[in-house]
Please model this.
Amino acid sequence: MRLRRSIERIVIRFTSSMNLRRKVLILYVAIIFIPTILLGIVAGYLALESFRVNYLVTINEAMRQTVQNIEFRKQSYDVLAIRTATDGELISRLSRDYADMFEQLNTVEYVDRSFVFTSKYLPGIDDFRIYHTNPMLVQDGRLLWKSEGRVLLPGLSETEWFAKAKQASSSYIWSNVNKDKLIISHKINAPSGHLLGIVYMLLDYKTVFGNLFDRPFSGSGELSIIDESRNIIVSSDPQKIGLKLQNTSLSENYEEASVAGGLTVNGNLFMVKPIDSKWQVAAVIHMDQLEKQSKTILYGIILVVFFFLLFSTFLMMTVLKNVVWRIHKLGTRMYDVSQGQFDVSIRNTEKDELGELEILFNSMSGRLGRLVEDITQANLKEREQSFKALQAQINPHFIYNSLSLLRWRALDLQDETQLKTIDALTAFYRLALDNKINVTQIQGELEHVKAYLEIQEMRYPGRVRLEWNIDQELLHFYTIKLLLQPIVENCYMHGNITGRKEAFIRITVERKHGNVRFEVYDNGRGIPAEVLEQLRSGQRVGNGNGFGTANIRERLQLYFEDQHEFTMESKENEWTAVSITIPAYAQRPQIRKDV
Model:
């Protein structure tokens, strides 16, 4: 107890004249910095000794896993080639005689159907072919080929490869073409032993084995794969790829290492591990590099720990308390702004750079709120003006004057048909060209549709029967103008209604759950299912002049937001029904949002 109090008095006396930052720094050095350095040195020494003891165990485990990976990868491609070469139906088709082109076409289709995706099963297959020897069977240039001397790869022709594969004692071989490519060849034999063809599989070296042989043992060794013919198929040293074993430095201790499992020569560990497929993996590990690498890693860890301990001393007193907490508070407020809350601010009492940033943030949040509101209002006005500008593209007075002149001439000629046509056109354009309104009463919209239908009746007299199912109590309610006419126009333009027998169009306006429901039904040629789905999703907007379904949807959203429904149903070659439901407005609706 007395000793503890004595130590406390000494510490207090020693630190009494220091500021808070120095006190925390001394506490940090005494409690964390020095113990961490000591523990790091001791732990590093023990770790280095452990590294030395476990080198061989680690290397053996690495070799075991490498051998397993190589064997697994090789077996994957082996199975693919063997499955193709032993396919019973393929053997049967390659050995039969063909009397006509139809039988050959069936064989080509079978091969494409059965093996066209073979090259997609495993990564690294650059080319996959089946070369056959049947003189009565064609080659399609996809999977079926004949050996005709074409160049497979630089320095290798079809004839050379086919001859070597045919003469090989083994029906299945791997071979090197260059430093980048491997070839798997597998003979296709008839039950009698007669050669029917050879499977050709071109592999990309880097994709198949590259990652296993890229800096093996962390750059402190070499790996090579030797096949049953003592050829080096794969190696981390590109200069050894494709060479015979006896032509390389590996041959000096190869046999002895194969028997002993491992051999240390001049500071290098030489190991040979067999693979079930009669291949062997040879490894040369430079022990001195591993030792040096381990020490470098250890010293690097110590230096990094020491650096961060010093650096954290500075950050602890300045960043953690002052900056991080205030930045977190600023980030929280910025998140609020990103969620659309612009009436947020930060209490500012500091005069440093963060304090200036907090002042700017408060100013920015206020200005963003005002700018968003201004932009929203501007977009609303812009949308409304765009609709008016669209309607103003045609001079209404010119059209009215022209129709008036035509009507006067028709009266003079006493042409009743022409008079009806001009009157219908006048009624049609009265609403379509009225630039001052975007909404109209349902009665006016129906008159506009009737005028359009009268014009069509004059063009196609007696071809289309009209059915009207109108709730008269709804005529004084409001809707957006040009709502029904484009849909009715589609009955003629796209539905080919005039080409149908007993053609009819039914227009319905009824009350439904307090809303107004419009429906246009026709028995035209309907809409194909694919086109109908595109129209529903908005992917297809149509072409030509006038308003389409996309325009109607946009204007409905502009005035009624999510309170409306727009549905299209159709059965191809039978019927089409377009239904629109909007709120029942006794007063003119206003634009509600920007779409």
Q: What stands out?
A: The radius of gyration is 43 Å.
